[in-house]
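Q: My collaborator sent me two sequences in one message, no labels, and asked for predicted structures for both. Can we handle them in order? The first one she listed is below.
A: Yes, handling them in the order given. First sequence, followed by its structure tokens:
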Amino acid sequence: MMREVVIATKNKGKALEFEQMFQPFQIQVKTLLDLPEFPEIEETGATFEENAIIKAESVMKETKAMVMADDSGLVIDALDGRPGVYSARYAGPEKDDEANIQKVLRELEGVPLSKRTARFYCALALAIPGRETITVNGTCEGFITFEKKGANGFGYDPIFFVQGYGRTMAELLPNEKNKISHRAEALAKMRTILEQLERESVL
């Protein structure tokens, strides 16, 4: 019986979300914080799915354990899908949230509200030794504002106006965000798959 999963992240907040998802299955959750010697994984994929698979399979090969990885970012229609897979390092390798936001706002100067449609996208990959890697995705639709609003969240949250909520992602309370975010949608889909795997006695 496989009773351990490694989450391919060093982000404590993200790890907590995954931990909660695995709770009903009584599976012990570890992260890359528990494996400090693990080298940085190069994300060379052209899509979020490819990057999530690269991360999950790289860690699985080393640990021989079940591994879950995610890759997510912001997709802006007026910028032909940018920043996309480069969301975290859009303004440079420093992964500076403020610099990334300012670059996006500069590139959208003069673009009317109706053309500023965007979505947050999350791809999740589950790699299990001896089985084909499973992927799911989740999205959250909205548009890019003209200025920052809100102090919650991180990344592009202050300039992402959530469709149907009348506020930016950074103005939502954490429990509100966790209900409607792209990661929440992807996690819900993955939970259904885990339940199926448990019924098949894979977990």
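Q: And the one she listed second?
A: Here it is, processed independently of the first:
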Amino acid sequence: MIYGIGIDLAEISRIERAAQKNPRFVDKVLTPAEKTVWQQYSGARQQEYLAGRFSAKEAFSKAWGTGIGKLSFQDLSILDTAQGRPQVVQQIFPGQVFISISHTQQYVVTQVLLETNGKE
């Protein structure tokens, strides 16, 4: 049973500016496992990754109906499978999470679908 659907669109340059303005921004948004992956990238790819995880966590919070605030960025960890598909590996929702992340040079869009077994 579908519990919720969330979508988010983020401007990559806005996320980059936030990270430059506040050195703790990266640590606020990324879990330690995500930060390890982020550190392996540089330049535009690093900014895409950060913006993608930010946007995905925003979309998750919308699907769950809480928004960021009641839900912390640290409550979710999104890592790629060996095939490159993003997968939520740490989360607090008691069901399945489906996620999609897509980039252009300027934007990242994410969609999250939350599914329960029907026994909410």
